[in-house]
Amino acid sequence: MLLSLPVAVQAHPHGWIDLRMRLVLDDQGRLEALHQSWSMDPFYSLVILEELGHAAGEDSLEAGLDQLGAEIRDNLSGHGYFTELHVDDQPVSFEEVSEYTVLERDGRVQFVFLLPLSQPLEFAEHTLRYQVFDPSYYLEMVHEAQDDAPAPGALVVAGDRQCDTRILPADPNPERIMEAAMLDVDDQAQPGLGRHFAETGEVTCQ
User: Fold this and answer.
1) What is the DSSP string of 46-67?
2) Are 121 and 87 in contact (CB under 8 A)?
3) InterPro entries, from UniProt (predicted)?
4) How far apart, in whole angstroms, are the C-alpha atoms of residue 87 and residue 202?
């Protein structure tokens, strides 16, 4: 769904993405966008880069990455950019993404984009929760980790606002785990399977 590139492995997921999330605030301290950085896993990145290298011909890799970025953005647009956001359990809507880039860093392909809210949101004294996941669970999406824990920069709030942040691990039940394990590369997962394997970012600001 995300890239439509072949990956020769069995069972879901077929790869993973390391996620970094930054909450972008306006000058009134309201949430106006989610700045996300997705790093494809090393093997999946290698497949992408090799495909781009074969297809590039006389064109540069940078041009290929630019084109790939547009394709990813367009594919994700119809799926809410794989992002769900709630404030006190009320869903928050987004606008279309117009700022994005794809780059290669340390052998990994990164998709970086700014996901704007439909309107600025004041969320002081409220609890904000988000999940980022591939609904089909073809790709597993987890926050960037360090020493078996979320990395310090995996979830941050821009500016100097006093906020508490935490990342809650996924807790799928055994039936969902078995369902995912039994899917091979050609099988279609039930809609929304990825939600059960999604971490939850949680933010509360004074």
Assistant:
1) HHHHHHHHHHHTTS-HHHHHHH
2) yes
3) DUF1007
4) 10
| C-beta separation of 109 from 122 below 8 A | no
Least confident span in 9-13, 58-62, 110-114, 166-170 = 9-13
**91-150 pLDDT, tens per residue?**
999 999 999 999 999 999 999 999 999 999 999 889 999 999 998 888 899 999 988 888
Q: Give residue limits of the domains in the chain.
A: 15-205
User: CA-to-CA distance for 181 and 200, rounded, in angstroms?
Assistant: 22
According to DSSP, the residues that pair with 139 across neighbouring strands are 15
Both tokens assigned to 65: 């990455």
Instruction: Please count the residues of the chain.
Output: 206
Which residues partner with 115 through β-bridges?
34
Q: What is the DSSP letter of 188?
A: P
Name residue, tokens 């369902």: 179
